[in-house]
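From the pipeline queue, job 12 of 40. The input is one protein chain; the requested action is below.

Action: predict structure.
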Amino acid sequence: MSILAEVFGRTKILLPVVHVADEEQALRNTDVARDAGADGVFLINHGMSYDRLLDIHRVVHARHADWWIGVNCLDLYPVEVMQIADDTIAGIWVDNAMIDEDADEQPEAEAVLEVRRQKGWNGLYFGGVAFKYQRPVNDLARAATVAARFMDVVTTSGPGTGLAAEQEKIRIMKQALGDRPLAIASGITPENIADYLPVADAFLVATGISRSFEELDPERAARLAQTIHASS
């Protein structure tokens, strides 16, 4: 069974991304995402320290203790995020999972995996591979195959925030992963989701379902959730 099916009860999922400004805004937008039928949310910090983000995560988790809530701490390396993860954090997402498809060994990715083993953390690890604003990857299939050993959900993106990934890129990575899930973390909208449903499994979405940088749009979020779940 797919790990997404084990955790969420379906194989295609929507995880809106909340650009956290403060507690009230994070709570409000998490409520919007849940009411829209999303499968969970990621809270991400922009211009905010990771410890403040985690404080706000605890507040959001207290309201939605029975729901899936993950974090992306942009100011920490992957191993540092894993070191501070606890059982209230359902998921960790990093933009750069430190995979080098040209190398025989993956010491930084191994370090994250070892910390996870030591802690016994049982959430989902979404690791960025061929991700926006990171180094170029020439062998997408190799990168995806290597990455799958170290994370639960290989996560990629288009070339920039709000920009859709090339469909051929997604097809190549998904073909290499086989039954392992692939997530897309940029450029997904209610209007283009049908192009990606056959070749990806998890959709981390902010711009495409937002009214502004910090506020989700309830109607667009609900439309996207309904379309994704209809295919699951």
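Job complete. The longest strand covers residues 13-20.
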